[in-house]
Automatic annotation (TrEMBL):
A GO MF label: ATP binding
SMART domains reported in the protein's UniProt record: AAA
Domain ABC transporter stretches: 22-255
Lineage, highest ranks first: Bacteria, Pseudomonadati, Pseudomonadota, Alphaproteobacteria, Hyphomicrobiales
Domain of life where this protein originates: Bacteria
Pfam families, per database record: ABC_tran
Keyword Nucleotide-binding found: yes
Keyword Cytoplasm: no
Keywords: ATP-binding, Nucleotide-binding, Transport
Organism: Rhizobium mesosinicum
Family: Belongs to the ABC transporter superfamily.
Protein name: ABC transporter ATP-binding protein
């Protein structure tokens, strides 16, 4: 028995009447180096809707980070299009904020508050007072009020990731792009951060694309999961994770097995 709605194939059919916020349509992404051409993804299509917790899941090297970079506007597709709110993505913009895995994504010479304020001042060009007010409210949301004047080197890995999340969310982007943001954390902190992210989502219903290669993390975080095949990444299936909240019980384990089978099955072996 399959424990979630699964749609196999290249182009997932929309079930809701909601218009997609982001459309990725038959996107092929390629790296060109002096000596070789690497196809990272091939003809990948998916839609992300408002308030989706959309997870890109697949084995190492299947092009998850590359897809996220392209959605961020840092890389141009060699074929296909990416559009947000009906406008084609051609460059980075404050409507798409990235949170990375690395702990060194903060500016070490700036405090927590200054790090979170920075894009509000530079990209949004907000007056200092308003930027500070917004930054403080997001720092509070990630439970870092006490560390507001601390410098990054005095923070734990989890705290640094909270700052990066606060900085991304404070910009109130249309989509938050998270590239394995918890992968470098210890298991306990990782779980705690996943819980906190879900609490934040309950509060603000932000839209997020979350990259991971952990099936368990994908099930916990997502409402929808796009499964990608090994290199070059192609869409294997889309899983609608209706039981996202019930990750601690047996249904999550069963779903985990289903996803594992889908990810590693040969094409045509499974309906
Ligand atoms: N800058 C680059 N130049 C050339 N090839 C690259 C570059 N970055 C990534 N690649 C290649 O593109 C493919 C996809 O890489 P990508 O990092 O997107 O995969 P991934 O699914 O995010 O992997 P992981 O889970 O290990 O982070 C891989 O074959 C990788 O070697």
């Amino acid at each position: 028995m399959l424990h979630a709605t699964v749609r196999a194939g290249q182009s997932p059919v929309e079930t809701a009447a909601l218009q997609p916020l982001l459309s990725v349509d038959k996107v092929t992404l390629r790296y060109k180096t002096p000596s070789l051409l690497v196809t990272a993804t091939e003809s990948v299509s998916f839609d992300v809707r408002q308030s989706d917790r959309f997870v890109l899941l697949g084995p190492s090297g299947c092009g998850k980070s590359t897809l996220l970079k392209a959605v961020g506007g840092y890389m141009k597709p060699v074929a296909g299009t990416i559009s947000i709110n009906g406008r084609q993505v051609t460059k980075p913009g404050p409507d798409r904020m990235m949170v990375f895995q690395e702990f060194d994504q903060l500016m070490p010479w700036k405090t927590v508050l200054q790090n979170v304020m920075f894009p509000l001042l530079v990209a949004r060009k907000l007056p200092e007072k308003i930027a500070e007010e917004i930054a403080r409210s997001y720092i509070e949301k990630v439970k870092l009020t006490r560390a507001v004047d601390s410098f990054p080197h005095t923070l734990s890995g989890g705290m640094k990731q909270r700052v990066a999340i606060a900085r991304g969310m404070a910009m109130q982007p249309d989509i938050l792009l998270m590239d394995e943001p918890f992968a470098a954390l210890d298991a306990l902190t990782r779980r705690q951060m996943q819980d906190e992210l879900l609490q934040l989502w309950d509060d603000t219903k932000f839209t997020v694309i979350f990259v991971t290669h952990s099936i368990a993390e994908a099930i916990k975080i997502s409402n929808r999961i796009l499964l990608l095949s090994p290199h070059p990444g192609r869409v294997k299936a889309e899983v609608v994770n209706a039981d996202a909240a019930s990750t601690e019980d047996g249904s999550a384990t069963a779903l985990e097995k289903d996803i594992h089978d889908l990810l590693f099955s040969e094409p045509g072996h499974r309906e």
